[in-house]
Design the sequence.
């Protein structure tokens, strides 16, 4: 994989280049903190372009739960289909919606996964992702399958410094 040196559209400082290249080489999440509008999201887009990787964006909101990044089980749709006699109801996998981490883990080539504005979510949100980001796998309880990343994606996490992030989370970035 080539080194990130900035791009024609994104001038990166030497310290930022070192941090990005270390995160890419070590496959550790890169946490980028700063004020809104300082180019944190654009950095992830430019990293993807520079290394020739797909960009998968997960825009976090105040109501976002970590589980949504893995998958969501739509029990209501399954109940409705069961009441209507739909044969799809017999396969629970028909009601599992893949989240952004699942998408990133199952790409044939490692993408750049942007977890944008992580500090907007509940304070437990970052801690709820620790195991999945460390192990690059998670279990789908409804189907019994384990989703593992064939290759670790490049993870870029942005924060607007709106609230403090947990120490355990910070140590892993």
Sequence:
């Amino acid at each position: 994989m080539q080194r990130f040196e900035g791009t024609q559209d994104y001038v990166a400082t030497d310290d930022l280049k070192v941090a990005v290249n270390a995160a890419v080489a070590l496959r550790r999440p890169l946490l980028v903190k700063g004020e809104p509008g300082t180019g944190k999201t654009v950095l992830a887009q430019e990293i993807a372009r520079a290394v020739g990787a797909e960009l998968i964006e997960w825009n976090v909101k105040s109501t976002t739960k970590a589980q949504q990044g893995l998958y969501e089980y739509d029990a209501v749709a399954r109940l409705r289909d069961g009441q209507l006699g739909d044969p799809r109801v017999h396969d629970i996998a028909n009601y599992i919606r893949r989240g952004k981490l699942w998408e990133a883990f199952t790409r044939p080539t490692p993408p750049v996964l942007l977890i944008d504005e992580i500090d907007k979510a509940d304070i437990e949100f970052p801690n709820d992702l620790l195991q999945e980001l460390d192990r690059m796998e998670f279990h789908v309880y409804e189907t019994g399958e384990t989703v593992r990343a064939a290759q670790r994606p490049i993870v870029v996490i942005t924060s607007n410094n709106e609230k403090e992030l947990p120490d355990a989370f910070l140590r892993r970035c």
Notes: The first helix runs from residue 14 to 26. The two ends are 20 Å apart (CA to CA). The beta strands are 30-33, 55-59, 71-73, 96-98, 112-116, 137-140, 145-148, 154-159. The chain has a mean pLDDT of 91.
